[in-house]
From TrEMBL:
Gene3D superfamilies: 1.10.260.50, Aspartate Aminotransferase, domain 1, Type I PLP-dependent aspartate aminotransferase-like (Major domain). Its EC number is 2.8.1.7. The keyword Lipoprotein does not apply. Residues 4-364 form the Aminotransferase class V domain. Keywords: Iron, Iron-sulfur, Metal-binding, Pyridoxal phosphate, Transferase. Belongs to the class-V pyridoxal-phosphate-dependent aminotransferase family. NifS/IscS subfamily. GO terms for molecular function: cysteine desulfurase activity; iron-sulfur cluster binding; metal ion binding. This is cysteine desulfurase. It comes from Psychrobacillus insolitus.
């Protein structure tokens, strides 16, 4: 059976060119980038070149990029780093109810340490109200963390508006862009973002690598202690092969960005059109506009999501009921709870499909046709 992978929001396969770069770098540039001999300098050069490319992808400066082990560490560094560095100025943080758990659980820990966190609600489209943010801002607010694009329903928050609003406030502005990076264009200067988190494995790069953009002049307290790597911001020998491969993945994404966006939008249309032809009743969870092009979350009445996912798996289709980080949990999606309420039917009948590398239009059609036949069994 040829499987159809429609769970790219969870993780993505490495692109062939990226894998080749990764394997080559592990073999050729094995030096420690902190060493002053030739082999170390060679690794340092590759690291610096990769960092510059990563910075350019969001219109930042290379000195504003801190390499991390992925999106979770980048989120944690932004949140804990800000909280501990600025706690003498205030202990109030603002975030949303639909953030990734790397943000939510970090904020919950800070609450246990005496910080005050405001969780902004969202509407039925998964979007915050900018006026709620205005009302929540206080003199002691030190950080606002609002994700760029939601990993479950794809809603894109008004990041530019938030950035404009915070120009007159001292709070740092962080956005978790893990799901949006490489899928939509990002300019940190236009958005007035201070901190931005990114992960490689969402864009066909290797797992275990990412970065945090930190605007020049911002003070964060380091989370790791040891060597003086990453300009004393993140101790630990740099994973040069992974960073170089990450940069290659970014290069490929940037090269084909507009084409990719158009393709994903078309696949969404084809997919839903085929479901309609198959007599499937469904509702799209999330906004019609201001949505990530590759994420499609559907509520299918009278189905049970767990049964449905098993049936999809047996038919060779990989999909998800929500965040991959809560896979296997019987708890409902916190994102859908925030959007619809704790007793809404969407909590038990919603499935996320997400498109990416190696998918074809024919796969999308085949998957929708298979799903049309599966749904009666899942009711």
């Amino acid at each position: 059976m040829t499987r159809i992978y429609l769970d790219h929001a969870a993780t993505t396969p490495m692109a062939k060119d990226v894998l080749n770069v990764f394997m080559n770098e592990m073999n050729s540039d094995y030096g420690n980038a902190s060493s002053i001999h030739h082999t170390g300098r060679s690794a340092r050069k590759k690291l610096d070149e990769a960092r510059t490319l990563l910075a350019n992808s969001i219109h930042a400066h290379e000195n504003e990029i801190t390499i991390t082990s992925g999106g979770t560490e980048a989120d944690n560094y932004a949140i804990f780093g800000t909280a501990y560095a600025r706690k003498h100025e205030g202990k109030h943080i603002i975030t949303t109810t639909i953030e990734h758990h790397a943000v939510l659980h970090a904020c919950e820990q800070l609450e246990r340490e005496g910080f005050d966190v405001t969780y902004l609600p969202v509407n039925a489209d998964g979007l915050i109200d900018i006026n709620d943010l205005k009302k929540s801002l206080r003199e002691d607010t030190i950080l606002v963390s609002v994700m760029y694009g939601n990993n479950e329903v794809g809603s894109i928050q008004p990041i530019g508006q938030i950035g404009e609003l915070l120009q007159d406030h001292t709070a740092y502005f962080h956005t978790d862009a893990v799901q949006a990076y490489g899928v939509v264009p990002i300019n940190v200067n236009d958005l007035h973002v201070d901190l931005l988190s990114v992960s490689s494995h969402k864009i066909n790069g290797p797992k275990g690598i990412g970065f945090l953009y930190q605007r020049k002049g911002l003070l964060l307290k380091p989370l790791f202690y040891g060597g003086q790597q990453e300009r004393k911001k993140r101790a630990g020998t740099e994973n040069v092969p992974a960073v170089v491969a990450f940069a290659k993945a970014v290069e490929l994404k940037q090269l084909h960005l507009e084409e990719t966006i158009s393709q994903y939008k078309k696949w969404k249309h084809v997919f839903t059109e085929q479901l309609q032809k198959g007599g499937v009743q469904f509702k799209v969870n999330g906004p019609k506009d201001n949505v990530l092009p590759h994420v499609l979350n559907l509520s299918i009445p009278q189905t049970d999501v767990e049964t449905f996912l098993v049936q999809l798996d047996l038919a060779g289709i990989d999909a998800s009921s929500g965040s991959a980080c809560t896979a296997g949990s019987i708890d409902p999606s916190h994102v859908l709870v925030a959007m619809y309420g704790e007793k809404s039917p969407e909590l038990r009948n919603s499935v996320r499909f997400s498109f990416g590398l190696n998918n074809t239009e024919q796969q999308v059609i085949d998957a929708a046709q298979k799903i049309s036949k599966i749904i009666p069994k899942a009711k």
